[in-house]
Amino acid sequence: MGESLVTTQEDRTAATPSPVADGRTVSGSTRATPLSRMRRARPTLRSLRSPRRPRLWFEILLIAVSYWLYSLVRNAVPEQKAEALRNADWIWSLEHTFGLAFEESVNRAVNSVTWLIVSMNYYYATLHFIVTIGVLIWLFRRHPGRYAAARLILFATTAVALLGYYVFPLAPPRLMRGGGFVDTVMLHQTWGSMASGNFKHMSNQYAAMPSMHIGWSLWCGLTICVLATAPWARILGALYPVATLIVIVATANHFWLDAVGGMACLAFGITLSYAWYGSLPHRLPKRVQRPGAGRLRALRRPPARAPELRRGAEPSQAGARGSDPAGD
Fold first, then answer.
1. Helices and strands per DSSP (H, E), number in the chain
2. How far is Cα 167 from Cα 205, in angstroms, rounded to an integer?
3. Rounded average pLDDT over 263-271
4. Strand ranges for the chain from DSSP E
5. Burial of 78 (0-12, 13-18, 19+ CB in 10 A)
6. Would you say the pTM of this structure is higher than 0.85?
7. Between 84 and which of 32, 51, 134, 206 could a Cys-Cys bridge form, CB atoms 3.0 to 4.6 Å apart?
8. Could you say which DSSP state residue 127 is in?
9. Is the keyword DNA-binding assigned to this protein (predicted)?
10. Integer angstrom CA distances of residue 208 from 60, 135, 308
């Protein structure tokens, strides 16, 4: 018996909640029960997992703080130089075993064309951030309902990469001893790269596995290919991760196996986002209402007129009819 019935003075029956059903004691004090806690938690969890329009100030703050924490943790990984160099030798020998150790040939061939290798150095140093931020802004403006799910993929991809930096420190090919690679960044003095000048002391040089250049570029490319409508945009989205793979190999910043690690991190991010939202980003609604927009619209809506007035009856006549006794 979850509810008790009470009859009012006008002979109308109203339902009042049972003292036991809503967690209240007979004296009126509230007692939190496991069932009541679960009922309160469900709407909160459901609201967090449902698509909603992002807030600009929150997203700017979240991205800035998240990247700062990522850089802090990444650079806090001890530079295990000896182990990183041993791991690089092992990766290099493994690729030779597969017959796929082509990085040195690509590195030397591209380095022979000065304008090309310098362009690739600046590509590596800048587009990694510019394109990713550009795609986030595009999602925020054009696909607000899908933004949070896509952003979660990017954040989860980046977060799980930190585990790889701790577990498997790896020197990039350009820092290998006797590997025959050309350090194109140092040779051509590329400005702004985290591997040159004083910047190299601000970044962990032995965190090459997995490659977040591939993880981020593949996220950008897939997002554009799936959500963009213009054919030229989809083509650029498909070419961007391919071009990034060529760049990271030609500049000797990564082995191609580092790219495989970046793809694995992205797969983890996609899986986590799907598990949380129950759908992939492109299957979510493109646009959603702002939080509280429905309540605000309801408050602004003018009140409906009485039925009698809508039919053209005079207020005095309506009142007179309402006062007539039922038996007359």
1. 14, 2
2. 15
3. 97
4. 3-7, 13-17
5. exposed
6. no
7. 206
8. I
9. no
10. 27, 24, 77
pLDDT score, position 178: 78
Closest CA to 286 of 56, 51, 48, 46: 51
| 3-class DSSP assignment, residue 168 | coil
- Encoded amino acid at 207, one letter: A
How many other CB atoms are found less than 10 A from the CB of residue 31? 11
Over residues 98-155, the pLDDT tens digits come to: 999 999 999 999 999 999 999 999 999 899 999 999 999 999 999 988 998 999 999 9
Domain residues of the chain, as ranges? 81-283
What is the model's pLDDT at position 3? Answer: 43
Query: Is the confidence at residue 180, as pLDDT, over 70?
Result: yes
CA distance 190 to 113: 15
Q: Kindly state the DSSP code that residue 123 receives in the 8-state scheme.
A: I
Please state the φ and ψ torsions of residue 26, each to the nearest 5 degrees.
Answer: -65, -35
Q: Are 277 and 149 in contact (CB under 8 A)?
A: yes
**Contact present, 172 and 205 (Cβ < 8 Å):** yes
For the record, the structure tokens of 221 come out as 């490319």
Asked whether the beta carbons of 32 and 23 are under 8 A apart, the reply is: yes
Of 195, 204, 199, 200, nearest in space to 166 by CA: 204
- Convert the pLDDT of each residue in 194-233 to its tens digit: 555 455 555 778 889 999 999 999 999 999 999 999 999 9
CA angle (188, 209, 189) in 5-degree steps:
10
